[in-house]
Specification:
Shape: globular
Helix content: 40-55%
Mean pLDDT: 94
Radius of gyration: 17 Å
Largest sheet: 7 strands, mixed
Order of helices and strands: HHEHHEEEEEHHEH
Strand content: 15-25%
Distance between the termini: 16 Å
Number of helices: 7
Structural class: alpha+beta
Strand order of the largest sheet: 6-5-1-4-3-2-7
Amino acid sequence: LEFARRHRAPLMSASIFRYEWGIEETRRLQAAGEWGEIQHIVSSMAGGYSPEGWFIYGQHPCWTVMTLLGAGVDAVSLYARGAAAHGLVVYPDRPPAQLWYGRPDLVGRYNETSVHFNKGVYRFGPAIEGNFWFGHHYEMFNMARTFREMVRTGIEPVPHREILEVTAMIHAGARSLAEKSRLVSLAEVLGD
């Protein structure tokens, strides 16, 4: 990040999950206010958990939470057994979120997010109208459009704090797992 700042080079880092159609729909629901405030989020990914895979694939559900609730995460806890890992993300001033990597009931689906509002639950995955590839292409084009706009304008689409916190969430989760699933403060791994 310092190198990019020093050279005035725009930087973009995020998961493809940030560009799903469901993220945009969640933002529309938030803006309309008809469903009330977000009470909690469950961001899930299929596949099988592994300690090595957590550092690669665990970032996807973390990015979903970060995209919807923003920077300011206080702490993360992670528990894993077999091919499933379940985490808790807490904020000092926002609702909590759950992370799943290797959620056992997502057979045949890549990921699913449940956004629990006061007056309802909005669930989404990458598929649009039941078609995974349609949805996957949408998120790829959406991500490419965002990157192209950054190159054109020089304006970074993802705040540096969010990039740092997602990375810290992954490391806090790994430390939590090694320490009997205790809540690990992001400050412990960020060094601030």
